[in-house]
Design brief:
The structure is a single chain. By secondary structure, the chain is mainly alpha-helical. Among the domains are: 50 residues; 58 residues. 78% of the residues lie in helices and 0% in strands. α9 runs antiparallel to α10. The mean pLDDT is 91.
């Protein structure tokens, strides 16, 4: 695995060295002895731009090293050359890292680019739309926020904590719209996720104090 990660990290340089070696062999011994080196060089350079080094980011994210992950992303100078699904993941990661830095404008821009490209997994689409919906709510854009959160729920949200958060947000929206029956339904769905995150559990406790008094 470490050898493979080393190859991905230095794939472009390996490609350049292979091409230079191929030219040297071509000059001294002819084309066919140099063919394999030409092929290696071209494949290395092509995959460097077409697939990129996103595999390297996984290890940084698992360790919570967002600076290391961002450094890898910033090393991609021509994201427009990435294969479309890979480019979508690239913008998703850029958006997630912008969220950790509380740069919500950049996060929104990158996540919208990711959605426009189409995400390779439906669950990832749900997670993206949930984050966009929450950001819209923070900006006071209730209509767009509700629409995006509904879309996220329909697309599917990959983990129980995020799903509970989505249902709680919809519960609060319905309460503000005085659609109490719908609010209670979303609240039940949030509790059914059995979240354990302190923030989500606290929200459930706060809403539970007065939701039973609502009509409907």
């Amino acid at each position: 695995m470490k050898l493979y990660n080393f190859f991905i990290k230095y794939r472009f340089q390996i490609g350049i060295i292979s091409l230079l070696a191929a030219i040297l062999v071509n000059v001294t011994s002819g084309f066919w002895p140099a063919f394999a080196l030409y092929l290696i060089g071209v494949l290395c350079i092509f995959t460097h731009f077409f697939i990129g080094p996103l595999r390297l980011i996984q290890e940084y994210l698992e360790q919570g090293d967002f600076e290391g992950a961002e450094k890898i992303l910033n090393g991609i100078k021509f994201p427009g050359l990435l294969y479309k699904p890979v480019r979508s993941v690239y913008y998703t990661l850029k958006g997630n890292i912008a969220m950790t830095k509380q740069d919500f404008d950049a996060a929104e821009k990158h996540m919208k680019k990711s959605l426009d490209l189409g995400l390779p997994m439906k669950e990832a689409e749900g997670a993206n739309k949930l984050q966009l919906g929450m950001m819209a709510m923070q900006k006071g854009n209730m209509k767009e926020g509700e629409s995006l959160i509904r879309q996220a729920i329909r697309a599917g949200i990959p983990d129980n904590e995020s799903a509970a958060l989505a249902y709680l947000q919809m519960c609060q929206i319905m309460m503000q719209k005085r659609e109490f029956r719908a609010a209670k339904d979303f609240f039940k769905k949030a509790k059914a996720q059995k979240p354990t995150t302190a923030q989500v559990v606290d929200q459930i406790k706060q809403i539970e104090k007065y939701i039973s008094r609502m009509p409907g």
